[in-house]
Design goal:
The chain has 85 residues and is an alpha+beta fold. The protein has one domain: Fusion Protein Consisting Of Minor Coat Protein, Glycine Rich Linker, Tola, And A His Tag, Chain: A, Domain 2 (2-Layer Sandwich). The protein contains 2 helices and 5 strands. A 3-stranded antiparallel β-sheet has the order 2-1-5. The protein has a two-stranded antiparallel ribbon with strand order 3-4. It starts with a helix and ends in a 6-residue tail after the last strand.
Length: 85
Amino acid sequence: MSGGRGLALIALALTRLSCGAPAVIDTTGRVEEGSIRVIESTDPRFNEAAKSYVGGARFSAGRVAGRAVRVRFQIPVDFRLPSRH
């Protein structure tokens, strides 16, 4: 990444970028491959990072009457630079 482009991405991140990524959580609490899609994004350059993050997440399986079930879930992903303290 060139310096100018990197600085531009950092400036965008300072304004809080977010994506909404619905996915299907399977009965083991993992995101089903191919189920992630970004439906809303403040900047499309962060879409792949959001999909990668959601794909690597682990959840508790949804349950109905005590039985694990598949669940469709929308996962908000916010990008922010860490604050300096």
